[in-house]
Design goal:
Length: 319
């Protein structure tokens, strides 16, 4: 009896601690839907809006980027960096890896410039560095991506770029779909990274019963399959979500009610177990009309728009 009480308290304490310490945030692109570059004030508002989500107690204080480059520039560091400093947010950095060696060199240049320009106010906020995003997935479907050997080369370039800087020691990963990580031809990439950034969307798996009621099962099948191929390395969830409006895909129907179901079942369980998590996303529809629309918030002023569904997690005391 004593032992079981002790064990219960101990496990609860561990569980709470890991959930509290995990990274929680949203993905954000460098442009709006119409191609307009996001400026520092836009990133600032996004970061503030994430922290101010009702019931979320400021826990969404991290942002995952896809590029180091400010949109419409060659290699100017992205203005999400000073916005993160202003709003006391952390950053999962991203270097875009599907535009070949010259494009990647611009990413490295922007990364190096940012280290010099912003120093430890920037580098202390970095949770990790993702080299690439869904490059292997796009390659597998015949779109513009990158070969595993190229991703590995870019990972080495990134390690060299941060060696001897205040970013040295930050984990370097690669973000891709779970299907890419379970493909043995890509094992060489997994060997080269410190963490796997897994993207998984039950919505996009119409070959199964992907109704929202079955979405948690589909998600965890993907997560466990990826973990099994992770060579013992941590698996971060770099993208997942459920759309609020748009087309049905298989049995997956976008709605605010279904997004809430997915949040409560899948997202809350990830947070309870302390998995690093970047949701897709806070706002999808600014200056455009995407189908589907993944945003917790619709188009408009991101600070004043109310959330389209609740992002609370009942019973999760650290949240
Ligand atoms: C497996 O990965 C390789 C290398 O990235 C790719 O060329 C191939 O298309 C992938 N296969 C599938 C079934 O996705």
């Amino acid at each position: 009896m004593r032992l079981s009480t002790f064990t219960f308290v101990f496990i609860t304490a561990l569980w709470g601690a890991s959930a509290q310490n995990s990274y929680k945030g949203f993905n954000t692109g460098s442009t709006f839907n119409d191609g307009t570059a996001k400026q520092q004030i836009d990133f600032n508002y996004e970061m503030q809006a994430a922290k101010q989500l009702p019931g979320a107690s400021g826990k969404f204080n991290s942002v995952r980027l896809y590029t180091m480059i400010q949109a419409r520039t060659t290699d100017t560091p992205i203005s999400a960096i000073p916005a993160a400093i202003e709003t006391d947010s952390t950053l999962l950095l991203g270097l875009w890896a599907s535009t070949g060696s010259a494009g990647f060199q611009n990413e490295i240049n922007a990364l190096k410039k940012a280290i010099v320009q912003y120093g430890t106010a920037f580098t202390d906020r970095v949770t990790g560095i993702s080299v690439g995003s869904e490059d292997l997935y796009r390659l597998s479907i015949g779109e513009v991506g990158a070969q595993p050997s190229q991703i590995i080369d870019f990972i080495h370039q990134t390690r060299n770029a941060i060696a001897g800087t205040s970013l040295q020691g930050k984990p370097i990963g690669h973000g891709d779909t779970w299907t890419a990580f379970v493909n043995a031809s890509n094992n060489v990439v997994t060997e080269a990274i410190d963490f796997l950034g897994m993207d998984a969307y039950p919505y996009y798996q119409p070959g199964q019963d992907n109704s929202v009621q079955n979405a948690k099962t589909i998600f965890y099948n993907a997560y466990q399959a990826t973990t099994a191929k992770a060579m013992g390395k941590p698996v971060w969830v770099t993208e997942t979500g459920w759309p609020v409006t748009g087309s049905t895909d298989g049995r997956a129907m976008p709605s605010a009610e279904n997004a809430r179901v997915y949040w409560e079942q899948t997202i809350c369980s990830l947070m309870a177990s302390g998995v690093n998590l970047y949701y897709f996303n806070l706002q999808s529809a600014q200056y455009g009309n995407p189908d589907p629309d993944w945003g917790v918030k619709g188009a408009g002023n991101i600070l004043t728009q109310s959330a389209r569904y609740s992002v609370t997690c009942p019973g999760l005391n650290v949240y």
